Amino acid sequence: MSDPLFQVDETDEGVTRAQTATGTELSPAEKAATREEHLKLAEGALVRADDLLAGYVPGVNILRGCDFYLQDGELVGIIGPNGAGKSTLLKTLFGLIPVRSGSVTLRGEDITGAPAHRLVSMGVGYVPQNNNVFPSLTIEENMQMGVYLRPKTFKERFDYVIDLFPLLGERRKGKAGALSGGERQMVAMGRALMMDPSVLLLDEPSAGLSPAYQDEVFIRCRRINATGVSIIMVEQNARRCLQICDRGYVLDQGRNAYTDTGKALMNDPKVIELYLGTLAKAQ
């Protein structure tokens, strides 16, 4: 039987787990996740989402008053239970999910519901979890597709990508469909980087990969971030995500439950108990 606290409340009358705690003072991570603190902390953010109400079908809202911000140069992780709205938030930021109320801004400019091609031209890259490569094309052709809006920059950008992912240069003439899951993930991330984005959205980059390739993906994410690309990462591997991110958000039932530095969330007793499990206590 599923935990009712992890079920999506379609009436918009539910509360997050953080809000169910009564008689106790809010922890710093709970306080930072409140609307009041968001308005203070999100000032001047590179990417900012305010009070988002969004969902896939009419009448069912997955995000129910969700706030988010990303400062320039940050790597921010988004974790939480299944159905919490993590991937929905990422897709909403990229204009793939209808926004019923609330707003999304990039460098102060309203991009709520903007089409993908506009966002790409504004410096936003997006790597979906599934179907994220063109399997019948070579690695090099996948990279060319990534820079179709600026074909003259192909060589410069491909050199940048193969510096991050040397394997892509070595196998540039090979078909993407012949690659392993981890190698395809490299292609997908590389293609998104071809347009020289300032913001990269990653949806479950380690999903379905072997432990070795998971580590490789997280290492590459830090390297990409170190080159000046701000990253928003949705991850099921919560502990590993928090280990590498500057800040993290815990979503629950479409709302903010906690936000703090990755290190602080990893050591927050409530986050450990509710989201990271008993395994985290021993590590």
Distance between the termini: 28 Å
Estimated helix fraction = 25-40%
Major sheet attributes = 6 strands, mixed
CATH class: Alpha Beta
| Strand arrangement in the largest pleated sheet | 6-7-8-3-9-10
Question: Tell me, what's the shape?
Answer: globular
Assembly type of the chains comes to: single chain
The CATH superfamily is known as P-loop containing nucleotide triphosphate hydrolases
CATH topology: Rossmann fold
CATH architecture: 3-Layer(aba) Sandwich
Count of helical regions: 14
How big is the Rg?
A: 19 Å
The average pLDDT value, as a whole number, equals 89
Count the strands? Answer: 10
What does this entry look like structurally?
With 283 residues, the protein is an alpha/beta fold. The chain has a single domain, classed as 3-Layer(aba) Sandwich (Rossmann fold), CATH 3.40.50. The chain has 14 helices and ten strands. It has helices at 17-20, 28-32, 35-41, 86-93, 116-121, 139-146, 154-164, 166-170, 181-193, 211-226, 238-244, 262-266, 269-276, 278-281; strands at 47-54, 63-70, 75-79, 99-106, 109-110, 124-127, 199-203, 230-234, 247-252, 255-261. The strands form two sheets. A six-stranded mixed sheet has the order 6-7-8-3-9-10, sandwiched between helices. It has a four-stranded antiparallel sheet with strand order 2-1-4-5. A hairpin with a 2-residue loop joins strand 9 (247-252) and strand 10 (255-261). Helix 6 (139-146) runs parallel beside helix 9. The longest helix is centred in the C-terminal third of the chain and has 16 residues, at 211-226. The radius of gyration is 19 Å and the shape is globular. It starts with 16 loop residues before the first helix and ends with a helix. The model is unreliable at 1-22 and 278-283 (pLDDT under 50).
